[in-house]
Amino acid sequence: MQVLSVTSECAPLIKTGGLADVAGALPGALAPLGVRMRTLLPGYPVVMRALKDAVSVAHFGDCFGGPADVLAVEVAGLDLLILDAPHLFDRPGGPYLNQSGGDWADNPERFAALSWAASEIANGAIADWQPDLVHGHDWQGGLAPYYIARSPAAGQVRTVMTIHNIAFQGLAPAWKQAALRISPTDFHSDALEYWGQISTLKAGLVFADRLTTVSPTYAEELMTPQFGMGLEGVLRDRRADFVGILNGIDEDVWSPAADPEVRTYKLPKGKAANKALLREEFDLAAADGPLCVVVSRLTEQKGLDLLLQALPTLLERGGQLALLGTGDPWLEAAFKQAAGPNVGIRIGYDEALSHRMMAGGDAILVPSRFEPCGLTQMYGLRYGTLPLVALTGGLADTVIPATPASISAGVATGIQFYPVSVEALSNARTSCVICMNRRITGQRCSAML
Ligand code: ADP
Ligand code: GLC
Fold first, then answer.
1. Residue 24 Cβ < 6 Å to ligand 1
2. Is residue 394 lining ligand 1, measured as CB closer than 6 Å?
3. Looking at the DSSP assignment, which residues form a beta bridge with residue 42?
4. Protein residue with least CA distance to atom 20, ligand 1
5. pLDDT higher for 343 or 256?
6. What is the pLDDT of residue 316?
7. Is residue 430 pLDDT above 90, yes or no?
8. CA proximity to 122, closest of 175, 185, 58
9. What's the pLDDT at 432?
10. Which domains does the chain have, with CATH numbers?
């Protein structure tokens, strides 16, 4: 089966979060099942610089305000199609934000162009290749199923839409309809209209043949007002076509035995050595208590404001925190403020350091208010770093909570807390983490027995 994956991020080329990891790992995971997946990605400067021997396989004279090429190229084992549209993507800043941290005003056009290019490819724009199926990710790929549904390829080329995060809905003002190549007859509440605006995510949810999200629990949550963020009705209507499939992680990239950042790793002794190195790297005092790590975007979603409030309790009980993240300026400032002998803070994005943190941490904290899947808790599980997570979404599906029963059966893999509140997080018995970790690493812990 020939599949075209339409994504705004793809590791190792361009990443702001888990979407990149998943988009980058999916082709390799599906290849043994007979799927050839090509990945359509915008030609951001960082992507263009990584290309060698790229060949133009399609040219568009007018791709949302300028000419564009589709370049075919292989990078890191990925079969890529790059939308080289300098008027949309050749600019400084990130994939979605400008250098001052604001959304690019033409984001709707930029990712409509990506989705439209996917539809053109579905309709034969590349001479010797056509997909059987187009797979759109999040709001950036949401218009692809719509354009295809309104093109000659409708019914021939099938479409799947995956929700990685319903909080980003791809909203654009109604007056952009013509610029986004949306027919006025499709601007109504059973199609692309959403409370008076255009929603490109809703376009995908209404027009794709099948819908998926990234964990079974999040799929159920999404059909409730508490988590559906206004789109629960659309998803309930499509329940028969909607399924939650748990994300996996790339075990070649996240492999304690082969990880170049894990110099001294070997369980059970390696944890202590890596922890000592990590303490040094974060200027933390030597201590007996658990070293808790966080690698995260610093946003409301991730519940890290709750962690800030629970921090005194964690420290009182002898715990330490090492945090790596970027995001909301107020959270960045508040964590910097909290730094001290037992709290190490790195504001920034650092892939290599994130590996060392998995290697050296006792526990990885993920106190998210909602979490479609979450990947860092799974990395933690691979590295003997116990997940302490909120009971929501994919966190509920990937961690077996420590209870007297699960501990005695030897199947617990982490600690879950509920409700997602400062009290529940504070009482999540971080002290257990040490016991649990010793159990995983084969050491006995008298407190637990
Ligand atoms: P989300 O996609 O919502 O941000 P995930 O847990 O699915 O959450 O994925 C986050 C990914 O981004 C993980 O691979 C994590 O290691 C990585 N990551 C997040 N923040 C940073 C950072 N500051 N430095 C390095 N990696 C980070
Ligand atoms: C989103 C979600 C995260 C998920 C990732 C990959 O960014 O916030 O929970 O793991 O997508 O699917």
1. no
2. no
3. 83
4. 296
5. 343
6. 93
7. no
8. 58
9. 46
10. 2-244 (3.40.50.2000), 269-441 (3.40.50.2000)
